[in-house]
């Protein structure tokens, strides 16, 4: 499986190189108001979280607002983002919480992961 691209930010990106243009996709986890976790994927993270909070996101989050973005990974293709979403959805809650904690401590310390 490909490695996520970590740029330490949560804004939509498009990477352009001579002859190559690829949109960045995100796999994300939000914490709902009832403390449950919801995992999804998108090409526009800010817009998707806003949609969840406006009741236009996933059916699951509609009755569990507001949601808070607690974790995200950046991917080069939708297929990679969807594959990671499926993998995270199969994780236990404890594993998801560890993933969130690792991400939170890395971003608060200014560390970055590379897709290498």
Descriptive report:
Helix content is 35%, strand content 25%. It is of the alpha+beta class. The protein has one domain (14-107): 3-Layer(aba) Sandwich (GIY-YIG endonuclease), CATH 3.40.1440. It has a three-stranded antiparallel beta sheet, sandwiched between helices. It is globular and about 45 Å long. 24% of the residues are buried. Mean pLDDT is 83; it is low at 5-12 and 112-116.
Rounded average pLDDT:
83
Sequence stretches where pLDDT stays below 50 over 5 or more residues: 5-12, 112-116
CATH architecture: 3-Layer(aba) Sandwich
Q: Give the class from helix and strand content and strand pairing.
A: alpha+beta
User: What is the CATH top level name?
Assistant: Alpha Beta
The count of DSSP E runs of length 2 or more, i.e. the number of strands, is 5
- What is the third-level CATH name, the topology? GIY-YIG endonuclease
Strand content: 25-35%
Helix content: 25-40%
Provide the succession of SSEs: EEEEHHEHH
For the record, give the distance between the C-alpha atoms at the N and C termini, rounded to a whole number.
12 Å
Q: Based on CA inertia axes, which overall geometry fits?
A: globular
Question: Largest sheet, described in full?
Answer: 3 strands, antiparallel
């Amino acid at each position: 499986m490909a490695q996520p691209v970590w740029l330490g930010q949560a804004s939509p990106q498009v990477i352009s190189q001579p002859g190559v243009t690829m949109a960045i996709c995100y796999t994300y986890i939000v914490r709902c108001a009832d403390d449950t976790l919801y995992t999804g994927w998108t090409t526009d993270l800010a817009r998707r979280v806003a949609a969840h909070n406006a009741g236009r996101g996933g059916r699951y989050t509609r009755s569990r607002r507001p949601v808070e973005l607690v974790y995200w990974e950046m991917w080069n293709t939708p297929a990679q983002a969807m594959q990671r979403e499926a993998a995270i959805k199969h994780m236990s809650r404890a594993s998801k919480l560890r993933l969130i904690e690792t991400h939170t401590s890395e971003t608060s310390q200014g560390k970055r992961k590379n897709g290498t």
